[in-house]
Each structure stands twice: as C-alpha cells, then as structure tokens.
Amino acid sequence: MLNITPRQLDVFVQTALHGSLRAAAERVHLTQPAASMALAELERQLGAPLFDRERGRLHLNARGRELLPRAQELLERHAELARFGQGDAQALAGELRIGASNTVGNYLVGELLGAFVRAQPRVAIRLRVANTHAIAAMLLDHALDLGCVEGPVAHPQLELRPWREDRLCVCAAPDHPLARKRGLKPVDFAGARWVLREPGSATRATTERVLAQLPPGETVLELDQVEAIKQAVAAGLGIACLPEVALVDALATGRLKALKTPFLDLRRMLSLLLHRQKYRGALLEAFLRSL
C-alpha cells in the first residue's frame, strides 16, 4: 500500500515548476537534503523516476508529466479539507499562478486582478507576463493555473473563455505624412513602414490580419515590447498597430497620433485560457467568479 504524503507531493510539484531541488526546498521550507529524501521516497513508492537529470537541472519525464496535474489536484483538495476541518471553508488562502499576455499584464492588470485581490487578501497572486504563445505553453506544462490572452489559441487540451472586447489603433508620429493627411484610404498605406510585435504575439497576429486589408508595406522593426514600439514610432521609424489601452498616455501628450481608419476591423476579444485537465478548486473558481 502506498504511503505518499502531502509533503512529498509538494516537493515534487515545486521541483517540477522550478527545475531544481534547491528552489523546491526553499518553497516548501525544507533543507535541500530533506527535500531530496522526500522526492526519492516518492519515486521509490511509485517504482519509477519522475525526472530526467540534465546539467544540474531536473526535467519531468513522461511519468512525471502524467503525475503533475494529479499531484496539484491532491494538494489543492488537501488544503480545502484543512480549511473545512478548521470550520473556515469559505476563507480562501494559498497561491494562484496567473499568466497574462503583454497588453493584459501591463495595462489591464487592475481590471483582471483588482476585485479578487480585494476580496481575498490571504491569497498570493503570482503573475507571469509573456506573449500569448508562451502563456499557452506554460498552461500545457501545468506551470500556470490560468491565462489571460489577447488572441485565439487552438489546442485540444486548452479551453478558451471570452473575457472582454479590446480594440487596436494604427498610430504614427505627429509629423508623419499619414498623420497630416485627411480622409485616409487604404491606398494611402502603400509602401508604409511598419514596426511590429514579435511572432507569437497576439497583437502581431491581429496586425497581420490588418495588413492583409491594406496594400503591401515594409516591416522595418520587430520588437517584443509595446513601449519599445511606441518609442520607435514616436521617433519616426515607422507606424504601428497597437492596443488602444496602451496608447492612452502617448495620445494624450501628443507624442503619437491615432490614424483614423474606419475601413479596418480593429476589434479583438481578450480571453481566459484554462487547461481542460486542471482541477478547478475553490481558489480558481472564486477567481473566475470575480471576473
């Protein structure tokens, strides 16, 4: 009969998420030798190693990847049982790992997290900001509990839920020829020099959809941060298609000018992204309700 303890599962999960026993030991407040013994005992009871050791790092093998979501669920259920036993089942505590694509993480984090953080002060939020492709990859690895992304994600193991609508805006430096021209038409964008987000970004995908509605232009820069693109556009290096929420300050101060393009569809949907195998315990359900 197996005698696996929550501590052993916690060491396993933290090792899987952080790639080293040292980091896992710090997270679960053990010495490294004690964490190593806990992991070794778990592997002994399961009769197989859970990690491949490569250059001092631990990488989940196939058995470990299969165990990870189950171990996370058991730990969450154990925490829920502890709260129930203390007569405090409604008082949530613990940690929620959320991934946000760049627009959400940099400009809408208050709207995403504010209500939940105010309602649940004992829950720690760990926010990871990356592009949509990276957020989806982390969810598939069970490194996140939830993602909030800017673009569509098509993967059979991931569920996409609409959150809120977002709009993009084509912008230029105030002295750019297109900024001085009235009554813009698609033909005016022929040969335009564009500053784009990096491949894998949802803003890049939306921009490419916009570019398909316009005459051919030229990509002069690819940058992985919206603020860097704003600086490049303000310097006159090209024009860009960026989220409206990211342009509020630059438009208000006159550093950038919004180009009127009623002939372009610049709407998109921001969405919540969840792993279909993820256990949706009290923490996650409470967060989803807050939205």
In short, what is this structure?
Pfam families: HTH_1, LysR_substrate. The protein has twelve helices and eleven strands. By secondary structure, the chain is an alpha/beta fold.
* Share of β-strand residues: 15-25%
Please count the helical segments. 12
| Bulk shape | elongated
Order of helices and strands: HHHEEHEHHEHEEHEHEHEHEEH
Number of strands: 11
**How far apart are the termini?**
43 Å
Helix content: 40-55%
Question: What's the rounded overall pLDDT mean?
Answer: 92
List unreliable stretches of 5+ residues.
Answer: none
Q: Largest sheet, if any?
A: 7 strands, mixed
Radius of gyration: 23 Å
Structural class category: alpha/beta
Domain HTH lysR-type: 4-61
Protein name: LysR substrate-binding domain-containing protein
Keywords: DNA-binding, Transcription, Transcription regulation
Family: Belongs to the LysR transcriptional regulatory family.
Structure description:
Keywords: DNA-binding, Transcription, Transcription regulation. This protein has helices spanning 6-18, 21-28, 32-46, 62-85, 102-107, 109-119, 132-140, 177-180, 202-211, 226-234, 244-253, 282-290; strands at 51-54, 57-60, 94-100, 123-129, 146-149, 158-172, 193-197, 218-223, 240-243, 257-258, 267-275. The chain contains 12 helices and 11 strands. The relative contact order is 0.14. Strand 1 and strand 2 form a beta hairpin. Helix content is 44%, strand content 23%. The strands form 3 sheets. Strands 3, 4, 5, 6, 9, 10 and 11 form a 7-stranded mixed beta sheet that branches. It is α/β, with parallel strands linked by helices.
